[in-house]
Amino acid sequence: MLATIHSAAVNGLSALIVYLEIDCRQVPPNQAGPMFIMVGLPDNTVRESRMRVEAALQSTGVVLPHRMSYRVNLAPADVRKEGSGYDLPLAIAMMVSLEMLKPQGNLLERTLFVGELGFDGSLRPVKGALSIAIKARAEGYEHLIVPKVNEREAAVVNRLKVYGAENLQEVIGFLKDPGSLQPTVVNTREEFYAAQTSFPFDFADVKGQESVKRAFEIAAAGGHNLILIGSPGCGKSMMAKRLPSILPQLTLAESLETTQIHSVAGELGARTSLIAQRPFRSPHHTISDVALIGGGAVYKPGEISLAHNGVLFLDELPEFSRSALETLRQPLEDREITISRSKYTATLPCSFMLIASMNPCPCGYYGHPSGKCHCLPGQIQKYMNRISGPLLDRIDIQIMVSAVSVSDLAKAPKGESSAAIRARVVAARDIQTERFKDCKGIHCNAQMSRSHLEQFASLSPEASDILTRAMTRMGLSARAYDRILKVARTIADLDGSPDIESRHVKEAVQYRNLDRSDWGE
What we know:
single chain, Ribosomal Protein S5, domain 2, Rossmann fold, 22 helices
């Protein structure tokens, strides 16, 4: 008997419906033993599903007849099928085809199945359950059966009944009696907003470093990329980890998109519904190009996509490979990445804030008050040249971080809380939202092009003269001009000023330390 079960495959960030067709027939006595043929571009994981399915059925008490041939087709046949999520639909299809299971009414046509089976019949989690749920609703399905661990992420999709099952026996029971399982209900808004106010790190714990905290506030307010230059132990990483606590809260739309990416990557926590806080990704400097931007033989989102709507922190920036750093140039501009391979093409968003840290020289103590640095100027210049000009050009704020002495740490009062800083950041972002309401794809000052700068960041003659003299005196490069204007516009927004004044330009100029022509001399 021919049976068709509906499942889904994840391609990039989206999903497509997969029809699993199976024909089970008795093998005549004069022919060879049982056969199992699967077509439709299955990978090795999908081919191996036969062993898991047969063991799971036996553990559930289903005895398969002897000398049967199984022909399985995964349609559409021109799309490669990967992963273990086809175990559950294959098990159901085999039982229906063998007439060992007769679902109620047209329940099969209205239900989507996805899940990996263990030998004991238990259902194990799969990747991309949220994307599959979104596709199921778009295609008009009424029910979605997923492993229990995935039920909450899939249940955030409304107008779709999502059922989380612990094992194969529960799914069989549902097909016989739909009332045996209850749909999962998630109070999305209540849980989402409740989780946005608690952060593991707070700027209140940072004593001193007022100029650096000011730079973080400006970066958060304008969405600017930032690099910290300082000696070891001065607090660069410690402050970077606190940046998400002062960024504007995620909207529901941003949260849904971020959760989709983490779901496809298989990095969503067990029984998680929505990601409520902006991601903070901090890969090690030995990371490969593929792990950074995504791809691989089996597609997986990279760190830049996992940092979407959040922060990508690259500690010890010069220690990253040159090729890995250069792959960041295009995503930083386009805020999306397209991975093209022989077996697939996938496009994922990657709108993130780049925060980097580095030492000022190979030994780390150039410019340190103790005078410990023994690096030669050539060594310092070679170290700085590990970061290319085009990449540096995409970093708006460059600030030196000085170590705080032990005596100053003991006397310094507790710092300003992240909540207080975030209030100012949100007020500045509201100004930018109003400013760019008619500009497609522009949401903050860091995303402005040259035409936007001419429209929204014009300078008075006095401010323009100050900027010109500063660039000449400090030996700043021409590429720093637009970056200074963007930062000055953000400083003015934090100040509540509609115009960029001289003091805003003066402060913005201070954040171009790596553009100094005398660095390392």
